[in-house]
Write a structure and sequence with these properties.
heterodimer; A: mainly alpha; 8 helices; elongated; B: alpha+beta; three-stranded antiparallel beta sheet; 4 helices
């Protein structure tokens, strides 16, 4: 940003609006979703690995059905947060839409995973990399952007390793991509 | 067209951006301001100094563990100046 250009009043207003919007959005960025999903999904990944590697449980993937119910808690949380602060910034609204779209596409891929050779972990990691990158960029919060790199690397790795190890890789990516940014946000 | 009635200290892209951030957040760390404005560290330092000399902001230097942290905080004078600037802008808008 230059400092000594002669500004028109409209430019001044544009700068004020943009900075106020960015600041408000950034202040409202909170850690709940990162920590909630970070813990839930990483525990599910590591549990799946343990069940596959060390037990004779034939259908360990059923534990993932719990996510169908676990969606309710973040939805209720967001509703209550919206009631407390009804005026969401443009960035918050766009971010909400991004993750709504992500969720819809995620479940679509899960439903049709038999059509993509069951490479669902790789697909989810790459989708999460994309969504996290966009979200972090909108809020201009670097830990989330760096976290998206972890998801991206994990996505590629999942295409290359045997299925069993995908769950370890995904669990590690969630720690780097969700839990660490989540705890950094909480500390702010 | 001259903008004589507009506070010259605020009528500058980076300084206005800094004051907009601080009027919203109250205070912000140097690194956060740098990230939001896209300014270089050197340039931002110079502009923060100018705002501090005018008593629009206060610069607080501290530590987080062993890491030095610089925080800028808007003052009452700064809030007043920003409010006056926004009011004066209206006279120039069509």
């Amino acid at each position: 940003m230059k400092t000594e250009d002669v500004m028109q009043p409209e430019e001044s207003l544009a700068i004020i609006s943009e900075m106020v919007e960015r600041t408000k959005s950034n202040l409202r960025l909170n850690s709940f979703h990162f920590l909630y999903w970070g813990w839930v999904i990483s525990i599910l990944h590591f549990t799946t690995y343990v069940l596959l590697a060390y037990t004779d449980v034939t259908h360990p993937f059923y534990i993932w059905l719990s996510t169908l119910v676990l969606w309710i808690i973040p939805i209720v949380y967001e509703r209550n947060r919206h009631k407390a602060k009804p005026s969401r910034t443009y960035i918050q609204k766009a971010n909400g839409r991004l993750w709504l779209g992500y969720g819809i596409i995620l479940f679509t891929f899960i439903f049709f995973q038999h059509k993509i050779n069951f490479e669902i972990n790789a697909v989810i990691m790459l989708m999460t990399a994309f969504a996290t990158f966009v979200s972090g960029s909108m809020f201009r919060y670097k830990p989330i952007i760096y976290g998206s790199i972890a998801f991206f690397v994990a996505g590629i790795a999942c295409f290359l390793v045997p299925t069993l190890y995908e769950f370890l890789i995904c669990g590690a990516a969630i720690i780097l991509g969700y839990l660490i940014p989540g705890y950094l946000l909480k500390r702010r | 067209m001259g903008f004589e009635a507009l506070d010259p200290l605020l009528h500058s892209q980076l300084r206005l951006a800094v004051m907009s951030i601080l009027v919203t957040a109250g205070s912000a760390e140097f690194t956060d301001i740098k990230e939001k404005t896209g300014a270089t560290a050197g340039n931002l330092s110079v502009q923060l100094d100018k705002l501090e000399k005018a008593s629009y902001i206060e610069i607080i230097k501290g530590f987080r563990g062993k890491r030095p942290v610089t925080t800028a905080k808007i003052t009452d004078t700064g809030k007043q100046a920003f409010g006056n600037y926004v009011k004066a802008l209206r006279d120039y808008l069509p």
